[in-house]
Amino acid sequence: MTESRNELHEFHWIMDMLQTIEVGLVVLDSGFGIQLWNGFMENHSGLSATRLQGRSLFEVFPDIPEGWLRRKVETALTLNMRTFSTWEQRPHPFPFRNARPITGTEPYMYQNITFSPLTSASGAVDHVCLVVYDVTDSATARLRMERANARLQQQSQSDGLTGLLNRGAWESLLASEFERFRRYGSIGTLLMLDIDHFKPINDTWGHQVGDDVIRAVSAMISERLRQTDIAGRYGGEEFVVILPETDIGGGEILGERLRQSISTMEVTTEAGIVQCTISLGVAQVSSTMADHHQWLSQVDKALYAAKDNGRNQIALAQNPHPVSH
After folding, report:
1. What SS3 state is found at 142?
2. Rounded to whole angstroms, how far apart are CA atoms 117 and 77?
3. pLDDT at 321
4. Domain housing 138
5. What pLDDT score was predicted for residue 325?
6. Is 244 helix (H, G, I), strand (E, B) or coil?
7. DSSP state of 236
8. What is the pLDDT of residue 181?
9. Do 138 and 165 lie in a common domain?
10. Which residues form the GGDEF domain (predicted)?
11. Cα distances (angstroms) measured from residue 17 to each of 13, 39, 55, 123
C-alpha cells in the first residue's frame, strides 16, 4: 500500500511539473493529433488541453508552416533522433503573442523547439514531443544589437545632410566598379556635377537655405537616376554618380535630363523660393586608365570645362578611349 501511495505521489509530482514548467510541452501522434498540451501551451494559446485532446495540430493552428513541421516530425520519427529548430530559422512557429513586459516591443514570442521521438511500451516510435522554449529576451537583444549595428553601418557610409553615400563609401564602390570594368571589359561612365554659384546662395540667404538647396538637388538625383546607378555626395555642393553598363553618350543623355529637371526645380526655403542650376562632367571608363583616380580626374576636368564655358551645361571628357569588346 505504501509503495502504491509513493507511486501515486510521484505521478502527481510529475504531472504538476509538466503543467508548471516554463517551457511548452506538446506530444503529437504520427497523425499530428495532440496528445499532450501542458500549462505553458494553455497559458499562451488560450486553449485548454481538454479542448485540444486528439485534434489535429494543423486544424487548431492553420498558420503553422505545415510542410516544415511535417519534415521535422517525420525526421525525428523515422531516424529516431532529436531534431531542432531555432528562432533564426523560424521566429515563432506557434503564433503566441509576446506577453513579457521587458521585451514587449516584439509582437510575437520567439521560440526554439526541440523535436524528440518517443518510444511506446511495444518499442514502436510513434509519438514525438515538442519542447517549446520562449527565447524572446535573447532574440530581442540580438535583433536590437543587429539593428543598432546596421544603423551605425549606414551612418558610417551615408552623408548626414543628403542621405546619399558619403565620399569615402562612394569612392570605395568606384574602385570596385573600376576593377570590374577592367576585368570583364564592360563599360561604365561617371557623372560629376556641381551646383552653380552656390557660394552666393549661402552668402545671400545663409547656410540653412544652402542646405535646403543641397538636399533638394540630392533628392532630384535620387529620383531621376536608375536603380543600378550609384550616387554620392563628393563634398560641399558637388555630387558624383557611377553609371554601370552605360557609355558616354548614355551618360550625356541622363545628365542632360538631370540638368533640365534641376534648372526648373523650385526649392521652398525659409527665405522663399530659390532656384539653381548645375554643371556636369561626363567621362567613360578607359582601357588607358591605370586606376579609378584617373577616371575621377577625367570627369573632374570635364566638369570644370562645363563651368569655364558658362555653367548650366554638360561637358564630355576628351578622347575617352573606351574599353574594346
Report:
1. helix
2. 6
3. 42
4. 2-143
5. 26
6. strand
7. T
8. 87
9. no
10. 186-319
11. 6, 10, 24, 26
pLDDT of amino acid 20: 63
End-to-end CA distance of the chain: give it in Å, rounded: 95
Query: Residue 277, class by beta-carbon neighbours within 10 Å (0-12 exposed, 13-18 middle, 19+ buried)?
Result: middle
Picking from 253, 166, 264, the residue whose alpha carbon sits closest to that of residue 220 is: 264
How far apart are the C-alpha atoms of 121 and 160, rounded to whole Å? 68
Residue 3, amino acid: E
The answer to whether 302 touches 281, Cβ cutoff 8 Å, is: yes
Residues 88 and 179 in one domain: no
Q: Is 161 helix (H, G, I), strand (E, B) or coil?
A: coil
| Residues 58 and 202 placed together within one structural domain of the fold | no
Cell numbers 521521438: residue: 117
Contacts of 134 (CB under 8 A, 6+ apart): 22, 23, 24, 100, 109, 110, 111
Residue 310, domain CATH: 3.30.70.270
C-beta separation of 269 from 210 below 8 A? no
- Is 120 in a helix, a strand, or coil? coil
- The owner of cell 567621362 is 283
10-residue block means of pLDDT along the chain (325 residues)?
47 55 91 93 92 93 91 91 91 86 73 92 87 90 77 74 93 91 88 96 92 96 92 95 94 96 95 95 94 96 96 85 34
**Percent of residues in the chain assigned helix, strand, coil, to nearest 5:** 45, 25, 30
Question: Strands 278-284 and 188-195, how do they pair?
Answer: antiparallel
Domain match, 204 and 78 both: no
Block residue for cell numbers 551645361? 313
Cβ neighbourhood burial of 291 (10 Å; 0-12, 13-18, 19+): exposed
The model's pTM? 0.57
Q: Compute the residue count for the chain.
A: 325
